[in-house]
Amino acid sequence: MPAPLRQPEPQRIQQDLQDLALLRDPDLAGWSRPTFTGVERESRRWVAARMRATSLDVHVDGIGNLIGVLPGQGAGGKAIVVGSHTDTVEGGGRFDGTVGVLGALEAVRLLEESGIKLRHDLRVVDYFNEEPNRFGLSCLGSRALASNLSPDHLATVDEDGATLAEALQSQGLDPADIPACAWSANEVLASLELHIEQGPILEQQGAGLGVVTAIAGIARLRAVFKGRRDHAGTRPMALRQDAGCAAAGTVLAIEAIGSSGADAVGTVGEIRFTPEATNVVSEEALLTAEFRSSDAGWFGLAREQLEQAVERESRRRGVHGSVLWLPPEPPTAMDPRLSELIGRSIAGLGHDFLRLYSGAGHDAVQLARLGPAGMIFLPSKDGRSHTPEEWTDLADIALGVHALAASIVQIDGWEP
Ligand SMILES: [Zn+2]
Question: Cα(275) to centroid of ligand 1, in Å?
Fold first, then answer.
């Protein structure tokens, strides 16, 4: 009969959350701690110290992942992996990512105080640079673990022409060390990430916890429309080749296509006219957009409809339209057996939960390449995230930490 698991102590979690939140860039809005800044480096030293105070063996790998290990009692081989990230978007909040890292530390304390010895190693990870950086890339740390950070990624340039490799070097990281960061598929028993939902579903349904079924895939595109530049005062409407209007028609099509799937969304990022002048008919227009869905089959349909819309909106105006699709990121299913185990662990604590999918990307997408991956979601007040108003109640965080710790115990008993 295993020892009963103690209850989390909410005030300990709150203290850690408050202390970490104070490490923010004072020149940016909200609770900002973007990667490649001094305050982010400082915050990671703080997290490392908290890991050591939680009796973990701490090291930083070649890409900058902060890894704290609680050695197992000898089953050897595979490790249980838990964690999230502590970097933020600019103008972000205090809970995105941080509850997964600091919550994992409270889970370790619970295991210790309950006298529970794991057979497997437990790795608590603060993944490096989860949020999209100025190179347009996200999840650098977990990508490196999953052997999914390529020379092409490292050659990506920012607006000033600097490469990602150079940015890493400026942080004291050597890109040559990245291949050695990779974990092999047979060293991960399972990975778990506790995270805020960042959407309104759990709150709307009155659920304290969510078990994630899948993480949305993303298809990003860039459409270019080439029309004819004319005098806006003298050119009759019927005789125009207005590239801007073709782009505008496509914006509305993206809204319609995004509304056509059960959990699909479509969003326009930017739209730019050349020239930007009211007295000239647009000669050229550029539009960037993305679609997301957990349904891999839906993307084929969305792609077809978008291309038809660009063609239709262009043709009726005598404009030439073209679409460039960026490499798609397919939806990632969470492991069904692991999700079931998480659900049983939550039920075993006497709580309800909701199964839901994640429209936001997470490190769990990369971890799923290495072994069974699962996520536990916590409610976000008003569904707000990536804003200073982001909020999750402490009682919900404590519930999630309890569920995380109970799931770790169950995974430890798994026979792979
Ligand atoms: Zn996050």
Answer: 38
**Residue pointed to by tokens 């007295």:** 279
133 CA to centre of ligand 1 in angstroms: 13
Domains of the chain: 10-216+331-412 (3.40.630.10), 217-325 (3.30.70.360)
How far does residue 150's CA lie from ligand 1's centre (Å)? 22
Beta bridge partners of residue 132, listed in sequence order: none
Q: Tokens 């077809």 correspond to what residue?
A: 304
Give the Cα separation of 223 and 353 in Å (integer): 41
Q: Helix, strand, or coil here: 140?
A: helix
CA–CA distances in Å: residue 356 to residues 19, 125, 215, 280, 322: 31, 24, 9, 48, 36
Q: Which residues pair with 356 in a beta bridge?
A: 212
* Matching residue, tokens 């020239």: 275
Instruction: Give 346-379 as a DSSP string.
Output: HHHTT---EEEEESS--HHHHHTTTS-EEEEEE-
pTM here is 0.91
Distance from the CA of 85 to the center of ligand 1, in angstroms?
6
The phi, psi pair for 46, rounded to 5°, reads -65, -45
Q: What is the pLDDT of residues 190-241, one digit of tens each?
A: 999 999 999 999 999 999 999 999 999 999 999 999 999 999 999 999 999 9
16 Cα: distance to centroid of ligand 1 (angstroms): 17
Is the distance from CB of 306 to CB of 267 less than 8 angstroms?
no
Q: Kindly give the distance from the C-alpha atom of residue 391 to the centroid of ligand 1, in angstroms, as a whole number.
A: 13
Rounded distance from Cα 67 to ligand 1 centre (Å): 17
Q: By the 8 A CB rule, do 47 and 62 touch?
A: no
SS3 383: helix
